[in-house]
Design goal:
With 374 residues, this protein is of the alpha/beta class. It has helices spanning 12-30, 60-63, 79-96, 107-112, 114-119, 130-137, 139-148, 162-174, 201-206, 215-223, 273-285, 328-336; strands spanning 3-6, 49-54, 67-70, 100-102, 123-124, 156-159, 179-182, 193-195, 212-213, 231-235, 241-249, 252-262, 265-269, 289-297, 305-311, 353-355. It has 3 domains: 3-126, Rossmann fold (3-Layer(aba) Sandwich); 127-154 and 237-374, ATP-grasp fold, B domain (D-amino Acid Aminotransferase, Chain A, domain 1), CATH 3.30.470.20; 155-235, Dna Ligase, domain 1 (2-Layer Sandwich). The strands form 3 sheets. It has a 6-stranded antiparallel β-sheet, sandwiched between helices. Strands 3-2-1-4-5 form a 5-stranded parallel β-sheet. Strand 14 (289-297) and strand 15 (305-311) form a beta hairpin. Helix 1 (12-30) packs across helix 12 (328-336).
């Protein structure tokens, strides 16, 4: 019974566990194995043991696993915290006999200690070496490396003070490009702003979701920021965005599905220019595992597509790829465990239009009582 562990990560991990159950059940059915006890909605299966850990004891992902573990809140910004985190991961793998560890948080730290995990019989599923992961997750370093291998990238410049910002802004606008900013590290678009000199601050405060701000606000922020502040000034790409979820192996894109974002809905695609970009990027950085590639067109006619970034983890929208006929979380696990060969992957079908819906789940029949001081 293979034991697989996903540590603290994003909410999509719960969806991944359910899809892995479904994939394992379908694989058993096709192999002629009785599946009366393989009921994905009840999250039970006889051939896999899934472990999830999370810092929030009420996280829904814990209910989706065979074993839900509380995860300490490690401070991975210090060397001591990093060492404590890795030691806890090693001990967790040893205690629970983890065959495959799919780290969500602390991927670079885990990758750097791959030999230690192998010594206790645990295989780690990380997309690349610790150094490569660090490069990809730093958007400024990634931009330079991607340009060096010929990938199409948006105009970008890293700055750290007001003078650098003004120079980059002037060069961007001189090239007749619409400027925007974002930090060199981060997720979910945190820190992204389009720049408009005519935008007043009150309008920004009343509608922060528009992500439009005046350059003077950025100047003020930089003027009072710490000395080691880093910021990217880049061109805003006005065209459509694609999010390509793919399973890779040793620099080869094995199977993938692109989600073309069109308002609330997303159109699933199985071929097109974004796949050419993704294949070249995966090969250039030697990636493996389940990752996400972000692309966007520079123009509203969808021409001149650029690579935005690579997320070295499963994306939140990965579950939608099931409507293209592929179960990427399961295929990733099956490939890692040697249950399927890269050349035997199913072929996805594009064309479906998908969208997210809200869902509620019962965590407990009665919430725990919190004592009130007299």
């Amino acid at each position: 019974m293979p034991t697989i562990w996903f540590n603290h990560g994003y909410s999509s991990i719960r969806d991944a566990l359910i899809m892995i159950r479904e994939g394992a059940g379908e694989a058993n059915r096709l192999a002629g194995t009785p599946t009366s006890d393989l009921r994905p909605p009840d999250l039970r299966a006889s051939d896999l043991r899934l472990i999830a850990s999370h810092r929030d004891p009420q996280a829904a992902v814990l209910d989706a696993a065979d074993i839900g573990l509380p995860e300490p809140a490690f401070d991975r910004t210090t060397e001591e915290g990093e060492a404590t985190f890795v030691a806890w991961c090693l001990e967790t793998c040893r205690i629970h006999g983890v065959d495959l560890f799919v780290p969500q948080g602390g991927r670079s730290l885990i990758a750097a200690r791959a030999d230690d995990f192998a010594a206790i019989g645990t295989r780690i599923a990380v997309p690349a070496s610790a150094d490569m992961l660090a490069l990809i997750e730093d958007k400024a370093a990634f931009y330079e490396a991607a340009l060096d291998v010929g990938l199409p990238m948006p105009w970008t410049r890293e700055i750290g003070d007001v003078a650098g910002f003004d120079a980059a802004l002037a060069d961007c606008m001189a090239a007749q490009l619409e400027p925007c900013i974002k930090p060199p590290q981060g997720v979910f678009g945190a820190g992204f702003w389009r720049l408009d000199p005519d935008r007043d601050l009150f309008a920004t405060l009343m509608n922060p979701d528009s992500h439009v701000i005046a350059p003077d606000v950025v100047r003020l922020a930089l003027d009072t920021a710490p000395a080691d502040t880093r910021l990217l000034v880049l061109e805003y790409l006005a065209g459509v965005e694609w999010s390509l979820d793919c399973v890779c192996k040793d620099g080869r894109l094995v199977v993938g599905v692109a989600r073309r974002k069109a308002g609330r809905a997303q159109l699933l695609e199985a071929e097109g220019p974004v796949f050419d970009i993704a294949r070249k990027a995966v090969a250039a950085f030697g990636l493996s595992g389940l990752i996400n590639v972000q692309c966007r067109a520079a123009n509203v006619d969808d021409s001149d597509i650029r690579l935005l970034e690579i997320n070295t983890r499963m994306s939140g929208g990965c579950l939608y790829t099931r409507y293209a006929g592929v179960n990427l979380p399961w295929l990733h696990i099956a490939l890692e465990l040697g249950l399927v060969a890269a050349d035997d992957m199913p072929v996805p079908q594009g064309g479906a239009l998908v969208a997210a819906i809200g869902e509620a789940m019962l965590i407990a029949d009665r919430a725990p009582q919190v004592p009130v001081d007299a």
